[in-house]
Amino acid sequence: MTQQSKKSKIPKMKLELVKSTDPILRRRTADVHLDLLRSSYLADLIASMTEISRGFEGIAANQVGINLRLAIVQRVTSDPWILINPVIVSFGESQKTELEGCLNFRWTQRRKRRSKNLILATLDLDGQPNYYDVSGMAARIVQHEVDHLKGKIITDR
Length: 157
Ligand SMILES: [Zn+2]
Description:
The strands form 2 sheets. The chain has a 5-stranded antiparallel sheet with strand order 1-2-3-6-7. A two-stranded antiparallel ribbon has the order 4-5. The chain has a single domain, classed as Alpha-Beta Complex (Peptide Deformylase), CATH 3.90.45. 27% of the residues are buried. It contains 2 helices and 7 strands; from the N terminus they run αβββββββα. The radius of gyration is 17 Å and the shape is globular. It has helices at 40-52, 136-149, and strands at residues 58-60, 70-73, 81-91, 95-102, 105-115, 117-123, 129-135. The model is unreliable at 1-9 (pLDDT under 50). β2 and β3 form a beta hairpin. It is an alpha+beta fold and 157 residues long. Residues 102-103, 144, 148 line the site of zinc ion.
């Protein structure tokens, strides 16, 4: 008789941050399809991205080599804020310049001029669009992550 592993849990996805030179960081990511929303794949991906970005501001899927328009914003709400196919609908007029870092560019910081507030549309896990009035640190993080999803990185102008 063969001994089978009794493990019932699917092993968590093993993801790593890609190198700063990885071309996936320069490509526009693909929309998350609605049929993926309630999949265990997406749940595992979100769990893994949440783990990797723990203690930091946020992460976009292409930063770990996944070509999907998915990002997580940390430290703004008590739970990680999951952005699915996020769109910045409008930017507030007032801007602020601050130093920003990035998980794929550990030793790099750039002064980035960003809108202090914006309106964000993002899907929830039921595929419904929700609109948020985002300001302060959260607005900065959202702009950084949405840039990633468009293939833009902090060293770009
Ligand atoms: Zn980044």
